[in-house]
Inverse folding.
């Protein structure tokens, strides 16, 4: 009867739900659920085997019960798990679906997972291998949902899921799902990736190559999060080379896609603006890959991206600002515009923007502040805070110059407290010595007027105002007045001692402030309503400096003022007042009887602390009276200066950026109750270690091209059956330590190369590196058969380095089914900085000069900086070969006839940081041996580095 | 950058859909208490004058939107870009609307398993997997017709 009803109608389920809904009372519903559970239990336990439809229906009912009871009935439905597993094993899609769907809901409960784990895993394996794509989809969905909750799933299934991902025959939808399911599994246990380095490289290459199909934005959107995770957590270096490719995609999407009538990029768009999903994912990944220039020691920054790529990224930002400020008709378009805008502006500060570019970002953002839409205002402020903290002064100045009134206006009128909080953060970031009075006044104004501000904002505001006044005050009187005003505005729920304590410390330490502070405190005490923080401050400071106000207010009057406040404040504050009374008594014994009376009264206090204090103080007074000793003068001697220099409030800030002169790290993030936001995260600092350089396995026969390149300005760097790499080195005439290298890659076969990615690896990029490699132009990602592409970069030599630390070039590409890589050393040594003599030019060094310099260096350094070596050469005419090689390197031959078979040569080594060095050399040829003696005007290892280069070139 | 959980509640705080994409590390001892806290937070906010984003814990902020009597909300990382998640929610609601034809709470109650089917085609492992409404609709209509 029910045999051919699809899963779109399960009548029993619909009836049950309708039944439950008709019951008004919770108890009735509860009873109905219980009776249904009993019924299902009976059905599952009965001897008559259930058919698939019935099983599906009952399991679906259990799932509904789980949801509708807000997941509280888990224990009551556990009995159905086995039936769920039976559904998984069904060959009917709708039954399998209900099985998976129910388990997706329940599987994150440990009790569920441990109960049926084995059955589920074996079913998942079988479904992943199924020929029915719909079954594979269900299994992948399940893994995507539950993957992160259960480590065993990773161990058991990661290979199967990867198989779906990498298989060229998998349907697109399966690739998308498997990419994200794989990500869920890997997040669980990243070590599955890293404990086998060969597998890691293989997997990463496969995954990265999925981004190749630049027309397929669908697949890309699902692969990008996986790549981002790899870049962030697993292997940053193997993802860095994607920057040019990703930038191109972003450029296509944002710039090309929105100009002209390019219809091929329709998929790129969403409501006629760039596809926000793709853009946010691309930018998010680029954000991970590109470090901000303030963290320059890490990896790549705007300064070592090639200019072309950087240019494209900057154009994207400009374009998005144009689009974003255009205004949009409907809410949806506006949301999308803003998504893209915020995403790119938040990223833009990493692109080393000019002051104008920053000002234009600021302008675009501030124009959105007037928006009626709350979300837009909120996010705009968020974005401004980030911009001002990341780009520092230029951004802050742009806001200060033109937009302060707008911000104040917003502060006065904004009703959303989360926006106010962001605004306060922004104002805080913008404060400097010049505008501190203005900003603090506005903030105090806000605290005074705002009626419905929540407690968190008030406390946050108070802390910030306190810090700003202390940090930027150029007038200490102003500091005191504002701080007291601030304390007077805090209400009773504001239970924060840091601010008044800090004020007291500063006042105690600065004698010039004593009088002014005491006068103002007296004024506040005389008001009807005095905030508790003021009472505490007054109790402490007026107690200390009674004599300063004695002409305005007698000790007796002061005592009365404090007694008046005593019953309006908390116990802690009362305890302070009791101590103050003792201090008052100390300065004027005439109030003794009133003080004694008060303490006696407080002996009956319910609070132990107050009782104890009163008792002790009474005893002290009695003791004094009986023995005539000056006990109070000793016990309440004047306060010594505080020695705490650091403002304790700073700890409360978290790491909100503070001006641009301070480093964020100077704030401890200890006070975790802070409610301020943190600046956008930068990637965890993970330095590229030298081991990365050392671990690179070089391709066979790499030496050939390497030696050639050291010696000749152009030629073949590498050649295999697939690819040929040509090079040309052009040293800059004006700056010989800088050489431009052009590499040309030629596809030698009939198949196109895809995902052609290159990477240049320096021996070291941090801690004063010997040379810096800067990419100018990256090769194309695809190379058609017979086609070529060029790759340009500069090498700047900063100081001398051994030739075996030359940069490494790593090239990876896809061709047919295979993935190939070539890894070579680039022949750039210290001798590459020798500027060759112009052909036919006059010799620079004459023989007498050579002999004289040789002697001078010997006198200065002795044998210290000298290097001798013997090289064996298998050539007929050794002398001619050596002479040719030395000339090729750019050294100048000093003609001489004094010593036979010996060459004298001279040259200048150029370095950026250490300056230039003269280099002199004698090369004596004897049958097949060459004895080299080299001296340089640097005492160190330089001559050895030069000789190493020459040896490499001679052999 | 990923969705930590997705929840759909009605105005009375009754759970309609729930999906945890990672073990929840909130202050609350269990998921039920977390859901109750979320409801308390969201339902007290002013929907005209407050944004659709609110910080929920040290590791999570909520991006939410109310459509008629239903709240759709996602928990995301603090550093994530909020707006794109709002677009996720909107897309989900649009697909629900087109699939059921002028969707209402009752559709989601009686056909909760279909709502999950749609959700699974939209988001997997906390990441969005398809962003085209047409492609999604075609896919779920196809799956819905399978026996």
């Amino acid at each position: 009867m029910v045999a051919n009803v699809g899963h779109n109608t399960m009548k029993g389920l619909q009836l049950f739900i309708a039944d439950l809904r008709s019951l008004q009372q919770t108890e009735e519903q509860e009873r109905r659920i219980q009776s249904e559970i009993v019924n299902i239990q009976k059905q599952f336990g009965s001897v008559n085997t259930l058919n698939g439809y019935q099983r599906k229906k009952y399991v679906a009912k259990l799932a509904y019960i789980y949801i509708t009871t807000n997941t509280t009935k888990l224990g009551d439905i556990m009995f159905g798990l086995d039936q769920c597993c039976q559904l998984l094993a069904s060959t009917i899609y709708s039954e399998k679906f209900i099985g998976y769907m129910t388990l997706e809901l329940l599987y994150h409960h440990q009790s569920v997972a441990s109960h049926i784990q084995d059955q589920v895993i074996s079913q998942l394996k079988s479904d992943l291998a199924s020929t029915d794509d719909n079954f594979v989809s269900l299994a992948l969905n399940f893994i995507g949902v539950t993957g992160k909750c259960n480590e065993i799933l990773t161990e058991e299934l990661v290979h199967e899921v990867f198989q779906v991902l990498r298989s060229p025959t998998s349907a697109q939808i399966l690739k998308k799902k498997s990419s994200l399911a794989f990500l869920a599994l890997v997040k669980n246990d990243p070590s599955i990736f890293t404990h086998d380095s060969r597998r890691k490289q293989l997997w990463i290459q496969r995954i990265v190559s999925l981004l190749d199909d630049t027309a397929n934005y669908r697949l890309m959107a699902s692969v990008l999060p996986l790549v981002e995770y790899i870049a962030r957590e697993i292997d940053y270096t193997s993802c860095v080379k994607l920057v040019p490719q990703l930038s191109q995609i972003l450029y296509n999407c944002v710039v090309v896609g929105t100009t002209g009538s390019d219809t091929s990029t329709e998929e790129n768009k969403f409501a006629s603006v760039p596809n926000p999903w793709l853009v946010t994912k691309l930018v998010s990944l680029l954000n991970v890959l590109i470090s901000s220039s303030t963290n320059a020691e890490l990896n790549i920054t705007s300064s070592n991206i090639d200019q072309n790529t950087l240019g494209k990224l900057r154009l994207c930002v400009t374009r998005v600002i144009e689009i974003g400020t255009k205004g949009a008709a409907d809410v949806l378009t506006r949301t999308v515009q803003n998504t893209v805008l915020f995403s790119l502006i938040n990223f833009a500060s990493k692109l080393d923007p000019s002051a104008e570019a920053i000002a234009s970002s600021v302008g675009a953002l501030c124009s959105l502040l007037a928006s009626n839409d709350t979300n837009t205002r909120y996010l705009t402020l968020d974005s401004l805070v980030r911009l001002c903290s990341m780009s520092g002064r230029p951004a802050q100045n742009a806001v200060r110059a033109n937009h302060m009134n707008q911000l104040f206006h917003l502060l006065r009128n904004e009703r959303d407290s989360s926006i106010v909080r962001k605004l306060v953060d922004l104002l805080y970031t913008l404060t400097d010595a010049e505008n501190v009075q203005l900003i603090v006044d506005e903030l105090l104004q806000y605290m005074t007027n705002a009626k419905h501000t929540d407690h968190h904002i008030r406390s946050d505001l108070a802390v910030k105002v306190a810090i700003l006044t202390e940090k930027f005050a150029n007038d200490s009187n102003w500091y005191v007045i504002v701080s007291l005003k601030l304390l007077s505005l805090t209400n009773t729920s504001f239970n924060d001692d840091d601010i008044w304590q800090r004020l007291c410390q500063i006042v105690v330490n600065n004698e010039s402030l004593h009088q002014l502070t005491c006068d103002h405190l007296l004024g506040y005490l005389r008001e009807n309503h005095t905030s508790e923080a003021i009472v505490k401050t007054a109790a402490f400071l007026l107690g200390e400096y009674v004599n300063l106000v004695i002409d305005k207010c007698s000790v007796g009057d002061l005592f009365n003022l404090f007694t008046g406040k005593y019953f309006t404040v908390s116990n802690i504050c009362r305890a302070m007042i009791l101590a103050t009374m003792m201090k008052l008594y100390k300065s004027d014994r005439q109030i003794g009887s009133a003080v004694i009376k008060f303490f006696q009264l407080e002996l009956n206090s319910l609070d132990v602390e107050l009782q104890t204090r009163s008792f002790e103080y009474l005893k002290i007074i009695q003791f004094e009276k009986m023995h005539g000793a000056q006990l109070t003068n000793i016990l309440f001697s004047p306060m010594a200066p505080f020695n705490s220099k650091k403002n304790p409030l700073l700890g409360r800030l978290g790491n909100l950026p503070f001006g641009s002169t301070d480093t964020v790290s100077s704030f401890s993030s200890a006070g975790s109750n802070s409610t301020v936001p943190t600046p956008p995260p930068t990637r965890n600092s993970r330095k590229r270690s030298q081991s990365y350089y050392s671990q690179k396995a070089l391709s066979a026969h790499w030496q050939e091209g390497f030696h050639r390149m050291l010696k000749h300005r152009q030629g073949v760097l590498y050649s295999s059956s697939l690819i040929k790499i040509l090079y040309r080195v052009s040293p800059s005439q004006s700056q010989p330590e800088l050489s431009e290298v052009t590499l040309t890659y030629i596809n030698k076969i009939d198949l196109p190369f895809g995902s052609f990615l290159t990477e240049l690896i320096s021996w070291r990029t941090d801690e004063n590196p010997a040379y810096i490699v800067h990419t100018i132009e990256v090769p194309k990602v695809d190379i058609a058969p017979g086609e070529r592409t060029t790759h340009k970069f500069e090498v700047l030599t900063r100081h001398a380095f051994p030739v075996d630390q030359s940069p490494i070039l790593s090239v990876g590409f896809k061709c047919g089914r295979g993935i190939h890589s070539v890894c070579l050393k680039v022949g750039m040594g210290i001798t590459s900085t020798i500027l060759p003599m112009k052909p036919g030019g006059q010799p620079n060094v004459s023989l007498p000069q050579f002999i004289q310099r040789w002697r001078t260096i010997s006198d200065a350094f002795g044998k210290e900086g000298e290097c001798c070596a013997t090289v064996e050469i298998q050539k007929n005419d050794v002398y001619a070969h050596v002479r040719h090689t030395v000339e090729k390197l750019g050294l100048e031959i000093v003609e001489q006839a004094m010593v036979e078979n010996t060459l004298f040569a001279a040259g200048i080594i150029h370095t950026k940081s250490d300056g230039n060095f003269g280099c002199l050399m004698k090369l004596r040829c004897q049958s097949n041996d060459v004895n080299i003696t080299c001296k340089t005007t640097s005492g160190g290892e330089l001559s050895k580095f030069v000789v190493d280069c020459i040896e490499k070139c001679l052999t | 950058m990923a969705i930590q959980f997705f929840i759909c509640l009605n105005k009375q705080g009754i759970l309609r859909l729930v999906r945890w994409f990672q073990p929840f590390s909130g202050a609350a001892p269990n998921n039920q208490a977390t859901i109750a806290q979320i409801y308390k937070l969201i339902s007290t906010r002013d929907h005209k004058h407050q944004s659709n984003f609110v910080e929920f814990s040290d590791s999570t902020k909520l991006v939410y939107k109310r459509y008629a009597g239903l709240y759709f909300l996602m928990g995301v990382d603090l550093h994530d870009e909020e707006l794109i998640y709002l677009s996720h929610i909107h897309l989900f609601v649009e697909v629900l609307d087109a699939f059921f034809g002028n969707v209402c709470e009752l559709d989601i109650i009686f056909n909760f398993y279909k709502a999950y089917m749609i959700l699974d085609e939209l988001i997997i492992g906390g990441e969005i997997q398809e962003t085209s409404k047409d492609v999604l609709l075609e896919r779920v209509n196809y799956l819905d017709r399978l026996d």
About this structure: The domain at 835-954 of chain A is CATH 3.30.310.10 (TATA-Binding Protein). The longest helix of chain A spans residues 26-45.
